[in-house]
Amino acid sequence: MDELQLVRDFFGEPAPPDPDMAAAAKARMAAGKPAIRHRFARGQLAAGRNRLLLRLGVPAVAAAAAAAIAAVLVQGTPPPVSHGASGIGVFQLPGDAAIGGSAGSARGILLTAARTAAQAAQPAPERYYVTPGTVGNVLRVGPRGDRYLLLEVVRTEDWAATNPRAGSPNLSQARYVQAASPADMAAWRRDGSPRVWKDVGQDTGLADPVGTTNGWLRPLSTAPGKLAAGSASYGALPFSVGDRFLSLRQLQALPADPAKLKALLLAGSPVQGSPGTVTSYLFQAVPAVLEMPVTPAVRSALYKLLASLPEVQSIGPVTNVAGQQGVAVAYTARYSGCARQIKPGSSALPSPLFTSCTVQQVLIIGPDDGMPLAEELRYTQLPAGQHWSAPDGLFSYEIFGTPYWTDHRPPGH
Description:
The chain is of the alpha+beta class. The protein contains 8 helices and 17 strands. The protein has helices at residues 3-11, 21-30, 106-118, 182-190, 248-251, 258-266, 275-290, 296-307; strands spanning 52-55, 81-82, 90-91, 128-141, 148-161, 167-179, 196-201, 219-221, 228-234, 239-241, 244-246, 313-319, 325-338, 354-365, 372-381, 394-400, 404-406. Strands 1, 4, 5, 6, 9, 12, 13, 14, 15, 16 and 17 form an 11-stranded antiparallel beta sheet that branches. It is globular. The chain starts with a helix and ends in a 7-residue tail after the last strand.
């Protein structure tokens, strides 16, 4: 049976191939984008004999092994929407969504989270492990000479099956698009108030620290979409940690040792060179594994790993984009060639919007259960004469829902 037929059988609908998708994937990889955006190895081919990963409607493309990150239903209120007469609204942050007061050192916050996580109960496995969330990405669109920023919000669900004969789909649903500021709303109106941007694709994961977005899927639209699969995998190895694909039993046998977990996460990773590069990578890779059904001891060790990273700072109490209260730590670093955006169907390498930038990676932790609430990426400094109109420099975020086990089948199964 061919790959597309497996997809049709699983989801009950045809998926015509897109011959330009492989070129777009190669461009993204050539741009140096780390493949750590999605949980459960979305968009990859696993090497294991019983695992087959298929991207719906496109040729299968081998990608670098990754430590996941993903996402649906937000445990909290969605970002506030300010609707103008045009209907798309203007993005607003909660009043105290930015930096709060000090809550001690970053190490203290992370070690407290480690103690809290170690005390959590271990739920009994069922047929599927579901990781829900919501992703927001600020994208640059519009005509040359009068560009503007839009916030795209996408709901996601990753389903991991423990049965090797069951599929593990990654689902996403476009929710809404907003102008990043009143000035961007005005530019959108000057552009004729378009409802679809064919040269910008939906983005279903957290950006990388330099702002690179994938833009692989359906054209960006103001209209809400349907919950649909972006990829599906088959086999009993649904969890990706470093360059390994693990079964549930293997995942729950991971060592509760920060140094060993660090080595596992860095295995096969694209990061080399300075400790800061490793810190940046782990700062996005670790939350992915925190959301997996690892043991409480491993989750605690992962927080201890974060506590050992250099130059991580405390932000203190914050309110995230969804209005949830938490405590936050951050890592800030300078990058070159920032804000690359890959257009769907394009084989050309993306051009950077900024020659350099300083980016703050923020991890927000729930004080009650020690689980990650959100990740946020913000520009804190751009080259002279450049600016970013989204509030507080925000350009990407992911709100983590509460993962859960279920015996129910995925939608469309």
